[in-house]
Amino acid sequence: MLRRSVVFSAVFSVVCSALIGSLAAISSPAFAEEAEACPAILNHKFNRLQDDAPQDLCQYKGKVALVVNTASYCGFTNQYEGLEKAYAKYSSKGLVVLGFPSNDFGKQEPGNSKEIADFCYNTYGVKFPMFAKSSVTGKDINPLHAQLVKATGTTPKWNFYKYLIDRKGNVVAAYSSMTKPDDKKLVADIEKALAE
């Protein structure tokens, strides 16, 4: 009986030591840094376009994000096709395209969420994440775009304005509506960010 007690005591001591070591590792600065919340630029929640389900942008931590304000009735609306192609081509390497419908420019996004979602999917086969309609400029600017504007010093001038965010949450650049998704400079910037 004494022998069992000694063995149990020894095992208990080893388990406790291991547990204390694990707790120390978890509370260490290195672990805290690794488990740290997502970058501030992604620390926002928006409702998904298709069903209004709240989405935390932190789920895209560690990815390269191309943020685009979109509209269904714009001369640039056909850029949806190029954006979807870029997403399909590079998503496995870590690119995510984030679409933010906005009625800020020319009132070219008048529809409700269902109408916008149906148009995007049925017309352009859009599968990249899209969020509920919001403002990307002015006094009602959504919090993500407010940070993008602050980081770049440039506000969206029209629909399909683009911002590129690297894997660490740094805003790399802003691109005008005239910059198509297959633009050589934009593609080079995306590929560079994906390689880092």
From TrEMBL:
Signal peptide positions are 1-32
Molecular functions (GO terms): peroxidase activity
Its family?
A: Belongs to the glutathione peroxidase family.
Looking at the keywords, is Oxidoreductase present?
yes
Organism of origin is: Undibacterium rivi
SUPFAM superfamilies (UniProt xref):
Thioredoxin-like (SSF52833)
The record's annotation in PANTHER family points to:
GLUTATHIONE PEROXIDASE (PTHR11592:SF44)
Which PROSITE patterns does the UniProt record give? GLUTATHIONE_PEROXID_3
Q: Which UniProt keywords apply?
A: Oxidoreductase, Peroxidase, Signal
Q: Which InterPro entries match?
A: Glutathione_peroxidase (IPR000889), Thioredoxin-like_sf (IPR036249)
UniProt keyword annotation of Repeat present: no
Q: What is this protein called?
A: Glutathione peroxidase
- Origin superkingdom: Bacteria
